């Protein structure tokens, strides 16, 4: 079955960077876009960006432009999200989510379990 | 950006009764090229990621009970649970995937009356 397994919780100081991994299994990694979504406590989800694992093409939400980088390692079917210049407002659960296809406008049919990133001095 | 606004923020319904959640988009999410509404509904239980229930505004995801249904077009959408079960008491979100950045509603918390 389709599985997305994320790396563990992180605690970072303001100004630092964090890199979260999303290891996939159960499907052909390069056939489906991976998106990243974060959710602060008690808030709705917030979309951060997408990546096509085949081409490596990416797209980012304007509010994260310049601070977020999405990459992948196709040999181990893993996607990564790196967020830099962390501030307290970045404290949230970060999810990877598989889109139902590659390219185009798609909803998300499988999600990782989430990674809590806490930014605190 | 397309703003998604859900109503109400919270809703109390008796078990076995109908629950209706609304979602309004600031711009139409109906594509003129394929006549599809780029709108999904998700259910999120505590400590879990969201789970898709409905896509294309009204297509039920495989395995989702048929008491869940979606309707609407353009800018106004509704998620209906025809007969509320105890396991349905949680938070629901709408999401537009018509244009980047994808955006979600603020959520509706469903409770038992």
Keywords:
heterodimer; A: 121 residues; mainly beta; 7-stranded mixed beta sheet; 4-stranded antiparallel beta sheet; globular; B: 113 residues
Please describe what this structure looks like.
The complex is a heterodimer of chains A (about 120) and B (about 110). With about 120 residues, chain A is mostly beta strands. Chain B has no helices and 11 strands. The mean pLDDT of chain B is about 95. In chain B, the strands form 2 sheets. In chain B, strands 2, 4, 5, 6, 9, 10 and 11 form a 7-stranded mixed beta sheet that branches. Chain B has a 4-stranded antiparallel beta sheet with strand order 1-3-8-7, with no helix packed on it. Chain B has about 110 residues and is mainly β. Chain B is globular and about 40 Å long. Chain B is about 0% helix and about 45% strand. At the A-B interface, strand 5 and strand 10 of A face strand 5 and strand 10 of B.
Tell me the layout of helices and strands.
The complex is a heterodimer of chains A (121) and B (113).
Chain A: E1 3-6, E2 10-12, E3 18-25, E4 34-39, E5 46-51, E6 58-60, E7 68-73, E8 78-83, E9 92-99, E10 108-111, E11 115-119
Parallel strand pairs in A: 2-11
Antiparallel strand pairs in A: 1-3, 3-8, 4-5, 4-9, 5-6, 7-8, 9-10, 9-11
Chain B: E1 4-7, E2 10-13, E3 19-25, E4 39-44, E5 51-55, E6 59-60, E7 68-73, E8 76-81, E9 91-96, E10 103-104, E11 108-112
Parallel strand pairs in B: 2-11
Antiparallel strand pairs in B: 1-3, 3-8, 4-5, 4-9, 5-6, 7-8, 9-10, 9-11
Quick structural summary:
Chain A is mainly β and about 120 residues long. Helices cover about 0% and strands about 50% of the residues of chain A.
Helix content of chain A: under 10%
Quantity of strands of chain A, as a count: 11
Structural class of chain B: mainly beta
Number of helices of chain B: 0
> Strand content of the residues of chain B, in percent?
over 45%
| Alpha-carbon Rg of chain B, integer | 13 Å
Tell me the series of helices and strands of chain A, N- to C-terminal: EEEEEEEEEEE
Q: Could you report the average pLDDT of chain A, rounded to the nearest whole number? A: 96
Strand portion of chain A: over 45%
The strand count of chain B comes to: 11
Residue-averaged pLDDT of chain B: 97
**Largest interface (C-beta under 8 Å):** A-B, 23 and 22 residues
Number of helices of chain A: 0
Low-confidence stretches of chain A: none
Describe the main β-sheet of chain B briefly: 7 strands, mixed
Low-confidence stretches of chain B: none
Instruction: Kindly name the structural category of chain A.
Output: mainly beta
C-alpha end-to-end distance of chain A:
40 Å
Molecular shape of chain B: globular
Multimeric status of the protein? heterodimer
